Amino acid sequence: EIVLTQSPGTLSLSPGERVTLSCRASQTLSNNYLAWYHQKLGQAPRLLIYSASNRATGIPNRFSGTGSGTDFTLTISGLEPEDSAVYYCQQWETAPVTFGGGTRVDIK
Amino acid sequence: EVQLVESGGGLVQPGGSLRVSCAASGFTFRNYAMTWVRQAPGKVPEWVSAISGPGDFIYYADSVKGRFTISRDNSRNTLYLQMNSLRAEDTAVYYCAKNLMNGTACYEYWGQGTLVTVSS
User: Fold this and answer.
1) Interface of A with B (CB under 8 A)
2) What is the pLDDT of residues B47-65, one digit of tens each?
């Protein structure tokens, strides 16, 4: 099973700041089959990025994904108050599908 | 507009059974693989099971294999998860999710979830 390690665990930032979240895989994702979601309190996760760098439908362009192999990054350029959420990465390179432990982003 | 609406959750005793359903609308249901993902309170999402559009390919997490059965009725646009021999560790919100596209296992749309509590 591929283990995804996310860092940092928690961030507290101000609106307008740029934030970079990390996701490291325990094995190489040769096809970069990695997605990012955010989950607000009491809601289902929402897909932000798939295949490492493709924005999902309706996602603002302040969200971007980069990376390959074992190291992946989600960048939010210009935090908005509504970006307060837990952010998860998820891989589907190898069964079973696995999720990272999450990064909590709080907006001051 | 894509909608996924789960139902059927509730309180069940250990060893009991429950079937949860997911009614889909707003897309051609039979063309998409569908997935169940669960999330225990305060925990990370956990992939549970997936089924191909026609229903001919089925996959399970090791934690539920032999106890849970995924199925779909494409004439009713409905996804099911039959859960038997339930354990306390199966307590979670169960989400159905639509795969982004065939060949991918990331999830573009999610339902609101249905809570399953296994407790005596």
Assistant:
1) 33, 35, 37, 39, 43-47, 50-51, 56-57, 88, 90, 92, 95-102
2) 999 999 999 999 999 999 9
